[in-house]
Amino acid sequence: MNLVLFGPPGAGKGTQAQSVCQNYGLGHLATGNLFRTHISNETPLGLRVKSILDSGELVPDSIVLDMVKEEIQKDDFKNGVVFDGFPRTVAQAEGLEEVLLNMGLTIDAFIMLDVPEEMLVQRLLSRGEGRSDDTEEKITHRLEVYRKETSPVKGYYEANGHVYSILGTGSIDEVYSRIQSVLDSLRK
Ligand code: AMP
Fold it and tell me: Any idea what DSSP says for residue 59?
């Protein structure tokens, strides 16, 4: 099973992706986490993308897709993948489709976490992960980038079916059980 867990910054994608991966035996492919690891290890890729992450802009599609293509070959993903924070543009969604097609795979479900915008800002400001892009100004910018560049990705998947919108408010467990209902209905 291959899933895209989608939604704005602060929707809870990372937290939910971890639970889904644990309970369904899938690999967690979070492009933001991969970039942050490159940055802290000061790899050439990390040095290249650091200022982009700091500004809240998107890393160019070709860089993201090259990283995903390499990552997805790893054994962690052989039983399926939860994509978190990717695809973030329609071009990335098209690129992903091609990568998966070459591997004989497809996206089984696109799960959208819906959270009202006021709540997103509050969640991001209070999550306390010490991220350099979690200041109020940068959060506002990331939400703008999401609206302009990322939200059209939903339309891309709607055109192919398989889109499930889930309310992302309430406790972590409540949101997880909504996701679980969708995934269990897919397996029947
Ligand atoms: P995240 O951890 O998903 O909030 O991502 C943090 C930052 O990493 C974003 O604000 C972007 O600068 C960069 N990033 C992560 N994933 C992508 C992606 N799929 N495409 C472009 N930039 C990304």
Answer: P
Element of type H or E holding 58: none
Residue 13 CA: which ligand 1 atom is closest?
3
Quick: pLDDT tens for 72-130.
999 999 999 999 999 999 999 999 999 999 999 999 999 999 999 999 999 999 987 88
CA 64, CA 35: separation in Å to the nearest integer? 9
Question: What does the alpha-carbon distance between residue 156 and residue 91 come to, in Å, rounded to a whole number?
Answer: 10
Query: Global pTM?
Result: 0.97
CATH pick for 2-187 out of 3.40.120.10, 3.40.50.300, 3.40.350.10, 3.40.50.970: 3.40.50.300
User: From the CB of 83, is ligand 1 less than 6 Å away?
Assistant: no
- 34 CA → ligand 1 middle, Å: 9
- Spatial contact of 107 and 2, defined as CB atoms under 8 Å apart: yes
Q: Is 50 exposed, middle or buried (0-12, 13-18, 19+ CB in 10 A)?
A: middle
- Dist. CA 118–CA 106, nearest whole Å: 34
Contact 89, 61 (CB under 8 A): yes
Contact 88, 34 (CB under 8 A): no
Ligand 1 atom at shortest distance from the alpha carbon of 87: 19
